[in-house]
Amino acid sequence: MIRALDTTQELAAFLRSRRERLDPHDFDLPTRRRTRRTPGLRREEVAELAGISIDYIVRLEQARGLRPSAEVLGSLAQALRLTSAERAYLFDLARQRPTTPGRPAAAAAPPLARLVADLSPLPAMLTNHRYDILAWNTEMSRLLLDFDTLPPHQRNSMWLCLMRPEMRDFYVDRERIVREGIAHLRTVWAAHPEDEALSALIAEFATDPDFARLWDERDVKVHGRGRKQMRHPEAGLVAVDFETLTPLDDPDLQLVIFRAADGESQSALDRLNAG
């Protein structure tokens, strides 16, 4: 069961998971004769690479209440060869990165709602960091789902993908879509540990076996662009390229815009929008 974020426990688990993913042969470390009984680097090897005492590494991985400085986190990130997204996640867990004050947006500001509508005929929608869908245009609702018919708590793109039965086969590469969504949710989970609604959503999603399995991998990366292929019940296969933009005044919001990835997909979108 996934509970509200305990940053100390998650920091410990994240450090262990990243240490265990590393291949000792990729590092210029002294050869040790004893057999490795666990995957990845040993704690003492991480301590050596990071210039931190072994005892400190042990206490961090045992969640013993340490509050590492930005300097220590930077050394750990370098030693563990974290990606930029993983590094940001580590700093968020340790509360060493500035956070945006205020409550998460629950509705679209009128100028943003108008912008979403004005993007027609491109399918577009506005979401908050939880993937709650705050605004959408007609083209997006025709492509995905008629959001007007849904109760507000179901207007969440991840909820629809995981929990709505008829959407389970909608995406051709469902596992990749779920994996990327989970990486985003884990990232914002660390940035918003006080968001009880987000924690409740994640706990609900964890009842899905695919979500629970992928969540435990602790991937953290936000995908701002890419391609999705969909099995639309009326239009057939539709491939779209998506772009995600963030308003400067509302950095926790995401404006998602779809474009047809090929001529056949454009024809399918034209047929949907003509109906």
From TrEMBL:
Gene3D superfamilies reported for this sequence: 3.30.450.180, lambda repressor-like DNA-binding domains (1.10.260.40)
Molecular-function GO terms, alphabetical: DNA binding
Any Pfam family hit: MLTR_LBD
Top-rank lineage group of the source organism: Bacteria
CDD domains: HTH_XRE (cd00093)
Residue span, HTH cro/C1-type domain: 40-87
The protein's name in its UniProt record: Helix-turn-helix domain-containing protein
Lineage: Bacteria, Bacillati, Actinomycetota, Actinomycetes, Streptosporangiales
